[in-house]
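Quick one, T. Sequence first:
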Amino acid sequence: MIYSLLKPALFQLPAETAHDVALKSLNCMPAEALRRWQDHTISDQSRRVMGIDFPNAVGLAAGLDKNAEYFNALGQLGFGFVEVGTITPKAQPGNDKPRMFRLKKEQALINRMGFNNKGVEFLIEKVRQRTFNGVLGINIGKNLSTPLERAHEDYQTCLDAVYPHADYITVNISSPNTPGLRDLQLGDSLQTLLQGIKRSQQALADQHGSYVPVAVKISPDMAAEDIDSFCDAATHNHIDGIIAGNTTLTRNGTEGSRYTQETGGLSGQPLTERARATIARLAQRLQGEIPIIGCGGIGSGEDAAAHLQAGADLVQVYTGFIYHGPALINDIRKATGTVNSNTD
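Structure tokens:
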């Protein structure tokens, strides 16, 4: 109700400006006020995934809170988990503005942000101020200036830095807005990266006396045979989870829209079927060996439940949250509370 009143004013602002205004406003509100957005009549069902007990199935995807400046406030809205980032070793400005565009009729966004963030050390300082008692994921990437053949060094730097502060870590190799990044999803580049990540994870687990799961975030634009090859590599290297997926470079369902020709990744309702098909292909190939977090095109509780039925164990929202506000979290909690999960 409240968000429906605020949304018209926010949507008069440029998309990235509205994003910043909304998050800063949330941060100014006391926790008690934020918790009023929740429907407290919903009986949440915990889900054990990647060895972690998630309070409910709905999480916030990476990208909304890149620098972990707002996750404590966002966590009061009913999310079972929040993923911050994508973070890189060094701060970087990202691409030139404007770099985010609303496709209102399609309930979609196109963004070419380019991993704009304040660097991993800034994020860690924010995470140290954690009051959120749900599950916290930290999403890591590579700097634009780092050559692709040295990408593993950036992931290693971030992994080492965030390991003691995360409940799980996501390796983002699927953003379409960092040139060449998606090449890491395939072939020898993928094998080299996953082998290095797994070695480092085990060393860090020994060092810190605790095991922090690592998930990999993939693109919804992968061909079926590439998904199969990715699954084989992920299984061979004992990756703990797969997030499916990121934004798409396709423009299906946006024909005639004002911004459809803008470069960048498309998210929101036009992505629903593509994301679900990726989840289903992963589930068919993996047969429960690796849990799946479904992300993309979730604009209702029914969308989320369908992602779970396709094979996901948890779901994440981003664009749907922009269009529907905190009410979407309640809808998903209601719709997914009784959907079976392939949990460990």
